[in-house]
């Protein structure tokens, strides 16, 4: 009963084992890949471990405050940015081990040649909002 | 209408349906349907005998569903076989239901969800809200749990320890959503305590009450975490503390010590102290020693090191800490605190920052970050 964010990167993750850019796959390979991802999400819904999942466009814009009364400054996208998130899935599972198992399964999605991509996925635990009732800190922690 | 009273009738009604021959999953669906109908009908037309009303309504729902089913003939036979209506003791059924919902074949999250729905009478939406997952996800979790226990015989005795662990999980989940899960866990544990005579059930109930009594004081107005030493003890619920202590003392008198009783004893010693300085740390260390004999949890030893630090000084606490695995959760936080007490503020600041990095809750992370900032800006 802990939530994990599974991050898929366009860029920034260590290279996959089957590292062929998607635009060089065959259309059937792309369909098989997408089907795998959809089936994975559907199965997690059935097991009651699915919370949310979305894909992100590769193009993004950086925005920051530029002072009172002025419109925000926009810039980018920066070609040199190392890390670029492609999408996420939020899981709610019984243990860290289960989260790792599921991430491993998603990483095995088929890619070029119909073989698993072995891509690196980032797994991050959610911080929970409230402390455990019994973790009362009678000290620094 | 008193929704809590209504929900407290659920396990008894469900138990009656199952004993009349309904399979667990179908009975549970029927009771939920009857519950929804009660919420609709009762405000205008309250029944004289709420439980009887629910049994009748749920049984009718069950029969309607069964008739629509492929196994129609076989199930309709049950109508002829059904026992004559009359007063039934709900106690045994309720107890069996607790055991079924905490069955070891279920994962912890499934056991929690099923318990909240079948024993607690919460709707799927309420449970989903409390756990911050979509309703469809929770519905699937509950159906899977019902399928898993579908083959379990309803009359098998269960292990009280498993039930207590599930209730403790519910309690610790806290209070997001519109249902207060901590209060719900207390209600269910009270119900269990009324149905089964077991010192650890009393121990868990006492522990929950003692923690719950301090809840308001544990967070500041902005949601920040207030450590025990800085809490406004005037905001503790003394009535609830008194009730927890009384339950604990009765349990301890039976001389069958268990993990929850020992934890409750430690909580009671904290709750008993009118000021921080009055805290009986020597006795707390003794209870941690008892607790360490009952469980192999290294977290107990970590908390024990804190207590030793208070009882015998920071150096003694650090010596105890040095014997433990530094990879333990909250190890850095404890080390930071003891180093600060020992006067080594640079080390303490570094360790607070490290502990903040490893914190698993937002409130804890913010609190530890503030501690590090306080020492870095002295």
Automatic annotation (TrEMBL), chain A:
Pfam families in alphabetical order: YCII
Superkingdom of origin organism: Bacteria
InterPro entries: Dimeric_a/b-barrel (IPR011008), YCII (IPR005545)
Gene3D superfamilies: Dimeric alpha+beta barrel
Residue ranges of every copy of the YCII-related domain listed in the record: 24-107
Family: Belongs to the YciI family.
Name used for this protein in its record: YCII-related domain-containing protein
Organism: Actinoplanes octamycinicus
From TrEMBL, chain B:
MF terms (GO), sorted A to Z: DNA binding; sigma factor activity
Pfam family, one: Sigma70_r4_2
GO biological process: DNA-templated transcription initiation
Gene3D superfamilies: 1.10.1740.10, Winged helix-like DNA-binding domain superfamily/Winged helix DNA-binding domain
DUF6596 domain sequence ranges: 161-251
Record's keyword terms, sorted: Sigma factor, Transcription, Transcription regulation
Domain RNA polymerase sigma factor 70 region 4 type: from-to ranges: 97-148
InterPro entries (UniProt xref): DUF6596 (IPR046531), RNA_pol_sigma70_r2 (IPR007627), RNA_pol_sigma70_r4_t2 (IPR013249), RNA_pol_sigma_r2 (IPR013325), RNA_pol_sigma_r3/r4-like (IPR013324), WH-like_DNA-bd_sf (IPR036388)
Domain RNA polymerase sigma-70 region: 6-69
Family, per entry: Belongs to the sigma-70 factor family. ECF subfamily.
Record's protein name: Putative RNA polymerase sigma factor
UniProt source species: Actinoplanes octamycinicus
């Amino acid at each position: 009963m802990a939530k994990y964010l599974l991050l898929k990167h366009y860029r920034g993750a260590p290279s996959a084992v089957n590292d062929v850019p998607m635009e060089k796959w065959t259309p059937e390979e792309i369909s098989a890949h997408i089907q795998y991802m959809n089936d994975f999400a559907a199965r997690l819904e059935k097991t009651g471990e699915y919370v949310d999942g979305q894909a992100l466009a590769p193009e993004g814009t950086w925005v920051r405050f530029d002072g009172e009364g002025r419109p925000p400054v926009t810039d980018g996208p920066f070609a040199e940015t190392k890390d670029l998130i492609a999408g996420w899935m939020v899981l709610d599972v019984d243990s860290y081990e289960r989260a790792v198992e599921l991430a491993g399964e998603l990483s095995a999605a088929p890619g070029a040649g119909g073989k698993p991509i072995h891509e690196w996925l980032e797994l991050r635990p959610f911080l929970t909002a409230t402390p455990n009732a019994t973790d009362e800190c009678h000290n620094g922690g | 209408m008193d929704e809590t009273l209504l929900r407290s009738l659920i396990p008894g009604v469900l138990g009656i349906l199952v004993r009349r021959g309904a399979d667990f999953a179908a009975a549970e669906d029927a009771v939920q349907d009857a519950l929804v109908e009660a919420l609709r009908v009762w405000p205008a037309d309250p029944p004289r005998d709420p439980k009887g009303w629910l049994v009748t309504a749920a049984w009718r729902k069950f029969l309607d569903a069964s008739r629509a089913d492929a196994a129609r003939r076989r199930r309709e036979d049950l109508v002829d076989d059904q026992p004559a209506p009359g007063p039934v003791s709900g106690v045994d059924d309720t107890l069996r239901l607790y055991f079924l919902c905490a069955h070891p074949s279920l994962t912890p999250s499934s056991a929690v969800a099923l318990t909240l729905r079948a024993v607690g009478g919460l709707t799927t939406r309420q449970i989903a809200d409390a756990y911050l997952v979509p309703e469809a996800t929770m519905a699937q979790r509950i159906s899977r749990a019902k399928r898993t226990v579908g083959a379990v015989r309803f009359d098998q005795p269960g292990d009280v320890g498993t039930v207590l662990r599930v209730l403790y999980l519910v309690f610790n989940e806290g209070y997001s959503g519109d249902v207060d899960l901590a209060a719900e866990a207390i209600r269910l544990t009270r119900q269990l305590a009324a149905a089964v005579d077991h010192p650890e059930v009393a121990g868990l109930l006492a522990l929950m009450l003692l923690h719950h009594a301090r809840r308001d004081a544990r967070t500041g107005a902005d949601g920040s975490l207030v450590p025990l030493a800085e809490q406004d003890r005037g905001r503790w619920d003394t009535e609830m503390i008194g009730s927890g202590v009384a339950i604990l003392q009765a349990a301890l008198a039976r001389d069958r010590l268990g993990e929850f009783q020992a934890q409750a004893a430690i909580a009671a010693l904290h709750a008993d102290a009118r000021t921080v300085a009055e805290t009986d740390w020597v006795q707390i260390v003794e209870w941690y020693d008892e607790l360490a004999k009952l469980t192999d949890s290294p977290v107990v030893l970590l908390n024990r090191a804190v207590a030793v630090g208070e009882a015998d000084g920071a150096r003694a606490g650090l010596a105890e800490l040095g014997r433990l695995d530094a990879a333990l959760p909250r190890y850095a936080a404890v080390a930071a605190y003891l180093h600060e007490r020992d006067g080594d503020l640079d080390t303490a600041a570094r360790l607070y920052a490290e502990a903040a990095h490893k914190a698993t809750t937002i409130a804890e992370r913010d609190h530890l970050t503030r501690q590090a900032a306080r020492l870095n800006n002295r």
